[in-house]
Input
Amino acid sequence: MAPFRRPRRSAPGSPDVPPRPTASAEIPCAASGAGSASGTRTRARLLDAAERLFAEQNYEATSLRQVTRAADANLAAVSYHFGSKEGLFRAVFARRIGPINRERIERLQALERESEVVPLEAILRALMEPALRLASEPAGRWFTRLVGRAFSEPGEHWIEADREFDGTRAAFLRAFAHALPHLAPAELGWRLYFAIGAQCVLLSGGDQARRLMSGMVSASDPRAALDQLVAFTAAGLRAPAVGGRG
Amino acid sequence: MAPFRRPRRSAPGSPDVPPRPTASAEIPCAASGAGSASGTRTRARLLDAAERLFAEQNYEATSLRQVTRAADANLAAVSYHFGSKEGLFRAVFARRIGPINRERIERLQALERESEVVPLEAILRALMEPALRLASEPAGRWFTRLVGRAFSEPGEHWIEADREFDGTRAAFLRAFAHALPHLAPAELGWRLYFAIGAQCVLLSGGDQARRLMSGMVSASDPRAALDQLVAFTAAGLRAPAVGGRG
DNA sequence: GTTCGAATCAAACGATCGTTTGATCCGCCC
DNA sequence: GGGCGGATCAAACGATCGTTTGATTCGAAC
Output
């Protein structure tokens, strides 16, 4: 009877103020080992299921009932742990993108520490290998599909999602500018645009993409894929400047 | 009272059997000129509105009520003219993809007619310029965003959508193989994969992509974009074979 | 002037969506 | 052993979705 002054709003995920967008990117519970009961494992199972479904389908095409059914959890668990559907998406993204970008920057710094001018191929590998390696692991295969699409898909979710890439972008942009002095800034921008695009379609590993090149690419070998991607993008970046037409 | 034996099912779009997937790709009424009344212009207005909304948002995120409101048409007009939401999507895609692929093949055939071995850059321009040029026209700007995403997005709609590209793919694959004899078929497959990927992110012109390279690329000049794309992909395709590692 | 069919319309259909509610379970600490 | 709070639960909320219905409009054919 008595209205009971809004008892909720104390979930770990977020109350009325949504969780910080600059997420901490820590894996709460890696869904490994056999915890005694269900513990807080529900949160991890929700992330796993949502990761797969968001990648297999779309953000909009994936219903929370699908997610909770796949995660063997209650529908309200999403609201409880993540506040909303978009909170779930942000958590899926933040869980893995942090470590990837951290490894990228650490590898780049190590390269810059050991030599004055870093070879172009080394920069490219530092940028692309962490994500590509994740694509070859069962746990990260779905996530890389999401990352690959973040570059070209519309929607508010994505804008916030790859804002986490900003720091990484700045660091690598300087490195590329040093390694490619023959390119004007505008030209360097175009070429990096294309290079990242090539990486993204490889990460997204789209159903269409695989169909399109069916029989020609052996998508099973991630090592060969990385070698080919580095060779292709390095040559493209090193191409002579086209400057003002012609 | 009397059940009135299902009077509908005679729309031009499709009855119970959906319209032929291998669409004729003819523009029914180019939404230009001032027809007397509303005529069948509604169909074209629906296509225009859906094209923009599907590109700005997503297939799933776009409701038919949004489309019909933007097109100043009745909600039931979609069912009447296209049979269903997916029929509308197919019609949007079929309206423009036919002419693009036709121009691609005609340009390639013209090149092969006038010289024994076609230069790589010429093949690339024949493949990429028709779509890039459409991106610079007001009428086609939204559509190119769709085309760029067809390569990496999941969903049934897309699978059918770029099946229309099959013929074009085969023709250009032969041309590339002739122009790049130093590449094994598997390597050629990878590189074409990346080249098309670079083109797709340029076509999709994603919100994120533009943000990511903000200030570096002047996206306003489509001619410069094409020059840069051709230079980048040509160099990437011509890169030495990496073969078996290293 | 009547008939016919393509085209448009308002209104509703059942289904499913994201979110919220209040109760219930259960391990833990004092 | 009694209370506390995190976690889970069934059930419902209002909104919106794609689709369908049956009536209405309107120009052309006869």
Notes: Residues 1-37 of chain A have pLDDT under 50 and may be disordered. Residues 4, 7-8, 37, 63-65, 75-76, 78-79, 84-85 of chain A lie near DNA strand C (CB under 10 Å from a C1').
